[in-house]
User: Fold this.
Amino acid sequence: MNNDKVIIIAEAGVNHNGDIDMARRMVHEARAAGADYVKFQTAVPELVISTYAPKAEYQKETTGTEQSQLEMCRSIHLPLDAYKGLAELCYKEGIGFMSTPFDLVSVDCLAEIGMDYWKIPSGEITNLPYLRKIGALGGKIIMSTGMATLAEVDTAVNILEKAGTPRSDIWLLHCTTQYPAPYESVNLRAMDALASLGCAGVGYSDHTVGTDIAVAAVARGAQIIEKHFTLDRNLPGPDHRASLEPAQLAELVAAVRRTEAALGNGVKEAAEAELPNIDIARKSIVAAREIARGETFTPENLACKRPGGGISPMRWDEIIGKTATRDFRADELIDL
Assistant:
């Protein structure tokens, strides 16, 4: 990963509602918006969710209570054989392909396709067999850490390491697992705690409404930004209302690029863009009135005025008491 460039992941997730044509459209829109990756969610619902699993409150609010969580997920997931075609489309479009596996069979499916990064979702951070399987693959990993304590994150990283993936290949995303996430629950400073674990870097998976919190995360040092997007926030489904529409995704990408450009190199020095303004904005020592040759420079006959380029006012004490070697007009730059 290029540490100078924030990686932007457009999280399509299951916002295609199980429609492969909609998923393909989402690839096009993510690429058009300028995202680096478009990411889906791969699962065999029966291997992820038991018949007894209740819906989350936000899922009840967005999809009702008629279906169980399992039934809901069955209706919005693509079959496993759809992801190879989506990966090929991403390659053709010039955008990276990613998908989050939610079960071991889905891991095998995606391993056959190949991805630059494995994405571990927040809910699997306490799933020991799952972590061991992905860690043993030896690829680069991005792991979301919603709902987790720092100790739980560190335990998960240790499992991935022991399975075969070093910390230097693991990125940790701070995340608030709520859709949408209240601003007061975001706690961007927790990225600093994640950074203390010594992994490859940190980022932020954003579930808030809008784009400003994701941009703020970049300003705080996020190297990866993940954000849900949808073709239409009014579509039925659990995640649409916490997602960006394509135009908003493009705005986010542009804002992140501006922010990373503005972060600079951390050296406090005059920027190249400022150089033409130094002499215009700074001041020089000038004659406060007409000064005759042989006259002594004093606080009464000298002043500090624009433009710069002459003797700096920082040399005031050095100039006071010296003798004028020529006549000076009022406002003329003093020289020695």
The two ends are 56 Å apart (CA to CA). The mean pLDDT is 96.
